[in-house]
Input
Amino acid sequence: MSGYFKKRGYEDSGDLAANRIGGLPQGTPLKVFTYTAKELFDGRDSAKIKGQKSLKAGGEYLSKNPFGVAVVAVSAGMDGDTQKDLVLTEARAMVVREYLVENFGLTTVS
Output
């Protein structure tokens, strides 16, 4: 089954919940970056990032400005299998988070 996940941009579905949070932090965010799935990902059911340039502004902002917590939130449409959409949204959040950490010098807290 790992080939299934790897082909979609992540290794194993067990890794997806490692940095899950219970909800968004209270208060107004300092900055919000919004992207469409079409801008960022390789396909409709993929978590492979194709739009690295799109994430540059967000990554640069985070690396140059002090902040407490950065949250990557992903949502799926209402058409399809709920469990499959959950796995896909978790995978997409994970790969965006990993991309930002690896490319912009951010650190993680687990």
In short: Residues 45 and 88 are 7 Å apart (CA to CA). The mean pLDDT is 79.
